[in-house]
Amino acid sequence: MTDETLAQFRQSIDNIDAALVFMLAERFRITKAVGRYKATEGLPPADPAREERQIARLRRLAHEADLDPEFSEKFLRFIIDEVIRHHERLRDEA
């Protein structure tokens, strides 16, 4: 492998990382709107049934994509926990 090849691989990784950041930012913009809606409607910050469905769905997708389902679940759980924290803060500010 040449330095040029490694540089190309790394450029692709950097592009993917940038896309992930922008996708996460968009996801959190939407979940913030959901949190405001829940706060004004008196809905709980967490929805365990939906979380379970989403985790199962992501595990299936990970399996289809040849990605470790355990990793994908940990990743989604991290995001869900952060969203719930934001929703709780929005509820407490309402």
From TrEMBL:
<protein>
    <recommendedName>
        <fullName>chorismate mutase</fullName>
        <ecNumber>5.4.99.5</ecNumber>
    </recommendedName>
</protein>
<dbReference type="GO" id="GO:0009697">
    <property type="term" value="P:salicylic acid biosynthetic process"/>
</dbReference>
<keyword id="KW-0413">Isomerase</keyword>
<dbReference type="Pfam" id="PF01817">
    <property type="entry name" value="CM_2"/>
</dbReference>
<dbReference type="InterPro" id="IPR036263">
    <property type="entry name" value="Chorismate_II_sf"/>
</dbReference>
<dbReference type="InterPro" id="IPR010951">
    <property type="entry name" value="CM_bact"/>
</dbReference>
<dbReference type="GO" id="GO:0046417">
    <property type="term" value="P:chorismate metabolic process"/>
</dbReference>
<feature type="domain" description="Chorismate mutase">
    <location>
        <begin position="1"/>
        <end position="91"/>
    </location>
</feature>
<dbReference type="InterPro" id="IPR051331">
    <property type="entry name" value="Chorismate_mutase-related"/>
</dbReference>
<dbReference type="InterPro" id="IPR036979">
    <property type="entry name" value="CM_dom_sf"/>
</dbReference>
<dbReference type="GO" id="GO:0004106">
    <property type="term" value="F:chorismate mutase activity"/>
</dbReference>
<dbReference type="InterPro" id="IPR002701">
    <property type="entry name" value="CM_II_prokaryot"/>
</dbReference>
